[in-house]
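Hey, weird one. I pasted the Acetylornithine aminotransferase sequence into the form twice and got a warning about non-standard characters only the second time. First submission, copied straight from the form history:
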Amino acid sequence: MISAVLPTYNRAPLAFVSGSGSWLMSEDGSRYLDLGAGIAVNALGHAHPALVETLTAQGQKLWHVSNIYRIPEQEHLAELLVDRTFADTVFFTNSGTEAAELAIKMARKHHHEAGQPERTQIIAVEGAFHGRSTGAIAAAGSEKMVKGYGPLMPGFTQVKWADHDAIRAAITDQTCAVIIEPIQGEGGIRVVPDQCLKGLRDLCDSTGTLLIFDEVQCGMGRTGKLFAHEWAGVTPDIMMVAKGIGGGFPLGAVLATERAASGMGAGSHGSTYGGNPLGCAIGAKVTEIVSDPAFLDAVSQKAAHFRQGLEGLVANHPRVFEAVRGQGLILGLKCVVPNTDVVKAGYSRHILTVAAADNVLRLLPALNIPEADITEALSRLDATATDLESAL
């Protein structure tokens, strides 16, 4: 008999009732150190006082009115993002998947309005994850994502990871955009080198192709910059944002230049819930905190501490861990044993991690995780590895 909740998730045998900072409390009263942060969502940890205060204050005033009317909270958050990024304009969504759908529409509409309606093809990279809508899975193209869901939305080509020649060869006079994650999250914490992002920007400029960055997982301060592409000194034409921007509240956005968004006039896109007063009030508070230079510097310092410790774990447990990947606080441990075994073994040590492709263990702690909690995390990961070694 099917469960009341559609059984699409392979859930861990854990349920949590409260959280504070980087810690979660389970139903039986046990405390767990959370290195997943809701898959990079809880950027400021659980129950951050400033977010609780903002949620309470806005919740007592106004939650939802719809985009039939002006929404001052939405305008404020849009202005913050425009001021702090490459973007000229912002559309708010409820999720990264919805942001992906708009990014696809915007890129195609741009070329249509420019008198190039034949430019509808979008190039993506193998191992990518852009969400689970039909458009997003068509972009990613992996068998796991698309099997059984055909016919898929046409117009997507996938090229191999880090194959510059393949991207160059794939661009034709029908290409409208290239979509890429500066750091693949689900794909195994694979970082696109700065010089590759620069080369991709140059290639798109020379061919009139729009460049879309998916920073749903790697953005909002996770690398020590507000957005990961800033390290390369390049900017996209369109960018997808979600996860951390709401600090746990469902919120996403598409940021774009005026040129890229030129085809998106009144009636061209919409959302019932997207950009509501409650979500945008919280998003503005997260953005104000995370974009502060001192906060971002602290992320980099904590990341250096964490990475150094992880390198030590690799050296001390070569039968469990192979290498460290990532940048800032979007880190991964390439595993020798199955990564899911490491995740499960961590439960007995009361530490929460997330599996990714390529047998990688994802480590996505809150950006404000205290140094003491990083030290504790390393200790628990060390004990987890020792437990696994004893069973080999």
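That's the output from the first submission. The warning seems to come from a hidden character in my clipboard, not from the data itself. The first helix runs from residue 37 to 40.
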